[in-house]
Amino acid sequence: MADFTQEEKEFFMAEALREAQLSLQKEEIPIGCIIVKDGRIIGRGHNAREELNQAIMHAEIMAINEANQTKASWRLLDCTLFVTIEPCVMCSGAISLARISQVIYGAANQKFGAAGSLYNILTDERLNHRVEVESGILEKECAKMMQDFFRQRRKNN
Amino acid sequence: MADFTQEEKEFFMAEALREAQLSLQKEEIPIGCIIVKDGRIIGRGHNAREELNQAIMHAEIMAINEANQTKASWRLLDCTLFVTIEPCVMCSGAISLARISQVIYGAANQKFGAAGSLYNILTDERLNHRVEVESGILEKECAKMMQDFFRQRRKNN
Q: Which residues act catalytically here (chains A, B) (predicted)?
């Protein structure tokens, strides 16, 4: 598992926030994700469900697909996934299936989070892969982007 | 929610088994899936993780992607998903996110199943979508395909 300094964690989370910004520009729920191996970004993703008409196209799924392509392998051993918001059930399952070692997320998702809030998929001893989880990196910035989005959407409806 | 006769359920599960056969031909874990709306198959999928080098490419994900494309929408309301083996955590999350109404599976997966075995994702009252779940359709045929595959793999190793 990679051992990042606080500065490195904030650097990579800022990259995930740049991805979230891409969702925002398309009026999608703003969540961004990057995957890092050996200090290098090997996958990037942002929520694009509406744009692509794909139910599964969350930030994490897009990033995992790209990292699988970069590595020419479905196994993402020794990789760290940075995501602005706590992963949902589907994405936590995908992270586990991809054998990702470590997840660092910004802000919790009390309604749908499956990495501590509703479920603890990533640390479940019954599954055949365990993931190290850390949270709270650039938490305010990550949460604010979501809050601003939903506030704006309520105003428009 | 669609109301299938026993004969219709077995007909559609046989179609899912044909998909599983495609995985088997590629030496992948043999799981197949189809999605039905108004009596018509709008998505098909089979496990293709090794072939495509994509961690997420389970049968259900491939079928959901195809159904999303057929409908030009991420919402699969009033659709029934037939799958030979109980969905895992990722696929159960994806089924919920796609707003699928009903899941009918063949055989349970005691190790990874999230539609009753390890988790009950599809009927969780805390999530914002609930899915009707039925199991046991062509159960023996669905289970046997998996057992034969793993028996053969152990023999080859």
A: 60 (proton donor)
ipTM of the complex in this document = 0.96
Are the C-beta atoms of residues B29 and B46 closer than 8 Å to each other? no
- B92/A89 CB distance under 8 A: yes
B153: its two tokens:
């793999």
Neighbours of A155 (CB within 10 A): 7
Write out pLDDT tens, residues A4-35: 999 999 999 999 999 999 999 999 999 999 99
Query: Considering the entire predicted model, what is its pTM?
Result: 0.97
Residue ranges and CATH numbers for the domains of chain A are: 6-152 (3.40.140.10)
Quick one: closest CA in A to B55, which residue? A74
DSSP state for residue A122 in the 8-state scheme:
G
Q: How far apart are CA B128 and CA A48, in angstroms?
A: 20
State yes or no: pLDDT of B15 exceeds 90.
yes
Which tokens go with B36? 């039905």
